[in-house]
Amino acid sequence: MRTLIVDDERLARNELKRLLEPFHKIEIVGEASNAEEALVLIDDLQPELLFLDIQMPGKNGFELLTSIEGKAPEVIFTTAYDEYAIKAFEFNALDYLLKPIDGERLKDAIARVEENQSAPEETAVANERSEKILGEQDQVFVKDGEKCWFVKLGKIRLFESMGNYVRLHFDDQKPLVLKSLNSLEDRLDPNTYFRANRKHIINLQWIEKIEPWFSGGLLVTLQGGDRIEISRRQAIRFKELMSL
Fold first, then answer.
1. Going by DSSP bridges, is the β-strand pair 218-222/227-230 parallel, antiparallel, or unpaired?
2. pTM for this one?
3. Where is the Response regulatory domain (predicted)?
């Protein structure tokens, strides 16, 4: 696998190269000390895998990834800081290695790379599944900490944005999932789920009462008592959607 190492510390790059020597499937085709160098090498060398530091002079590792044109390589982050872990996996990182890099953890990361490469058919099926539009009869798996649910989507009355997470409201449960509200909106059937405002998507089947609200908006009350404002702009779409 054609591999590029991106790290502003020369000693860290040398140590990683030493640790990677036993892994014959990893072919190191280049190294860069900052994002600008890395972007040129990515364009020229077309690596399949990046070992990427996060904190670097100029653009950080996340900014580097958003600057890549076309298909980005697979990524394993290498950093001395653990506070970026959640954000790293928002970028679909294969792994997140803390410095100093442990040999066994690196071995696990390489195994994950090989698994990812050896299962193109499974990946294609997963991608197809992830693009499917979900309706109220679909069931979804939800995990929050140690608790898990397999819930029919029609039971979820409200999706509420909480920063990088979305809170799901069903029955008396309110678990958090690591998704953006925008990405969920793209997958939900628009005939059932409506984007009420910047923070909320409501299940139209759960609306109990609708009232006029300030500045041309609407206030809906859902079964169970949730009261959600529909913004003025979305109220226009809502009336078009719900009218005869």
1. antiparallel
2. 0.51
3. 2-114
